[in-house]
Amino acid sequence: MSTAAAGTVTVLPRKRRNVEMLLVIFASALGLAAYVQVDINVLGKLPDNLTTVAVIGFLLPLLAHAAIRWRLPYADPVILPCAVLLNGLGLAMIHRIDLINDPPTNGASSQLIWTALGIALLITAAVVLRDHRPLQGFPYTLGLIGLVLLLLPLVPGLGRGNIGGAQIWIQIGPFSFQPAEVAKVLLAVAFASYLVEKRDVLALAGWRVLGIDLPRARDLGPILLVWVATLLVLVFQNDLGTSLLFFGMFVMMLYVSTQRPGWAVIGTVLFAIGAVGGYLLRAHVRVRVSAWLHPFSDPDQSWQLIQAQFGLAWGGLLGRGLGEGRPGLTPLARSDFIATSIGEELGMAGLFAVILIYGLIIARGLRTALACREPFGKLLAAGLSFSFALQVFLIIGGVTRLLPLTGLTTPFMSQGGSSLIANWTVMGLLLVISHQVRKPVATTEVIGEGQLIVERPGEHYGVDHQQRVDHQQRTPNEPAQLSPDDTEVTQHFDTADDTATDLRQGDTAPGGVRPGERRQP
Questions:
Q1: Which residues of 344-354 are buried (b: 16+ CB within 10 A; e: fewer)?
Q2: Confidence band, pLDDT 50/70/90 cuts, at residue 216
Q3: Does residue 173 form part of some domain?
Q4: Transmembrane segments in this chain: where (predicted)?
Q5: Which end of the chain is more exposed for a tag (fewer CB within 10 A), N or C?
Q6: Is residue 328 part of a domain?
Q7: What does the pLDDT look like over 109-151, one tens digit per residue?
Q8: d(Cα 448, Cα 9) in Å, to the nearest integer?
């Protein structure tokens, strides 16, 4: 923003939608190229459905981009292309595993349908929701729904029984679903809303041990309740991954909300107690730990993990090439072990590239949380980003023997509709929050005979109401008293793809503010 003359201000916001469009096209092209290369290497010809796959593969991401350009013009420009690229690579790898069977299966086709539904939810969040703050009003309702979804697999006649040792699926007619994936999103919103409401109480210090202020005993209820809930999931559903994911997310959000290291210490202690208890009480956990530490001592029990390690070793640094490996030798190659399938055919370099893309999504989400000046949005963005990061760490760490196997899905890549829909919803919420954070709001100060517009991204969150009233009540000749957060921005929002807006006497600034007026919070 620059002040050319008294009463004339130019606002140049930075949207980067053209950059996002180019990145989306590039990501779609990479996914389509991987799909085509699989058919060429396996069948020696182009895919029979190449036109259909190309149209859908480009159309769906561009529709999402159009919705963001229309309703969330200031949203982060990197999140959508990264999600599109991961989804496209996952589709190509699932298609490659389909071709192993004779006749080929149709896992990629069903995954494409779930992809369309997931992108439709992202578009719905962009067009209908647009602002995350109304979600703050339903902490207990969303929390209760999330807990019910989490425990649905235990309902007789609805749960599908043990699959891979865990009871985490429900069956409704011909469809199966993993409700914990949806519960993850709902509980993240509920946790953020609750912690914003109670953070002043939870931040009070109690005992001081080894230089760390621990919380008061009476305030331990929330973390103990979540701890018990995650233990119930571990004991009755044998779901180690979901237990770790939800408890880790809650402890992290509690620490971010209160900024008290004592909560992290208590969370770590409770996690250690739960881990030891789970190992002693549940044979399923002992099997996972044994397969992690000594996989070759019982090859029948650790067969899929052993095969995954051989696949990674055979792929080496640069991989065998798409369609040239043998990922079908590993059980669950298209779901739990799709990361090792990628590592076998694209090599460790390709697997590291995939991990880097995940890191970009996580970094942009945490950057959104850091920039957000409104507590609910900050906590929600941090919680969603951390849970996404923790899920990637647990599943890729498990299949590479860095950690015990947890049974979680690889976001956007593993075959499964519930995981895909939940992760596209998470991306939609992060885009909504980033739009509100990055959106500049122009306000006006009266200084002498001229006008000064003070503009910062997210200004509508950060300026105190009384400070705004004091600015309004100042006389025209009284000098402006700006707080450190109300610093003037000069040529800070210059951009390459958006036109400037000139504001003169009688014009309206972005946010509906005219020179001489002050926007009310």
A1: bbbbbebbeeb
A2: low
A3: yes
A4: 21-38, 50-66, 78-97, 112-130, 137-155, 263-281, 346-367, 379-400, 412-433
A5: C
A6: yes
A7: 999 999 999 999 999 999 998 889 999 988 888 888 988 888 8
A8: 16
Residue 3 lies in a domain: no
Among candidate residues 241, 252, 301, the one with its CA nearest the CA of residue 275: 241
Q: Which amino acid is at 180?
A: A
DSSP state of 127: I
- Report pLDDT digits (tens) over 164-212: 566 777 877 777 788 888 888 999 998 998 888 887 777 665 566 656 6
Ramachandran sector of residue 401 (left: φ over 0; alpha: ψ -120 to 50; beta: rest): left
- Give the number of domains in the chain: 1
Q: What is the pLDDT of residues 501-514, one digit of tens each?
A: 333 333 444 444 44
pTM for the model stands at 0.81
What does the alpha-carbon distance between residue 96 and residue 322 come to, in Å, rounded to a whole number?
A: 8
Q: Quick one: CA torsion of 78, 185, 117, 412, rounded to 10 degrees?
A: 50
Joined tokens for residue 276: 């030891």
Residue 98 structural domain: 17-438
Helices 338-371 and 375-399: angle between axes, nearest 10 degrees? 160
Q: Which residues pair with 455 in a beta bridge?
A: 442
Are the C-beta atoms of 131 and 435 separated by less than 8 Å? Answer: no
Asked whether the beta carbons of 406 and 54 are under 8 A apart, the reply is no
d(CA 482, CA 83): 41
Mean pLDDT of the chain: 79
Strand partners, 5: 8
Question: What is 131-197 written as a DSSP string?
Answer: -SGGGGG-HHHHHHHHHHHHHGGGSTTTB---BTTB---EEETTEEE-HHHHHHHHHHHHHHHHHHH
| CA atoms within a 13 Å half-sphere pointing along the CA-CB vector of 424 | 27
H or E stretch at 207: strand 205-209
Residues 6+ apart with CB under 8 A from 498: 12, 13, 14, 15
Task: Classify residue 101 as exposed, middle or buried by CB count within 10 Å of its CB (0-12, 13-18, 19+).
Answer: exposed
CA distances from 367 to 18, 78, 135, 489 (A): 21, 12, 21, 20
- Which burial class, exposed, middle or buried, applies to 140 when counting CB atoms under 10 A from its CB (0-12, 13-18, 19+)? exposed
Give me the residue label for tokens 């954070």.
437
Q: Are 511 and 460 in contact (CB under 8 A)?
A: yes
Q: Torsion angle of alpha carbons 442, 445, 450, 456, nearest 10°?
A: -30
Q: What is the DSSP letter of 479?
A: P
DSSP assignment string, 493-514: S--SSS--EEE-TT--BTTTB-
Evaluate whether residue 170 is within a structural domain: yes
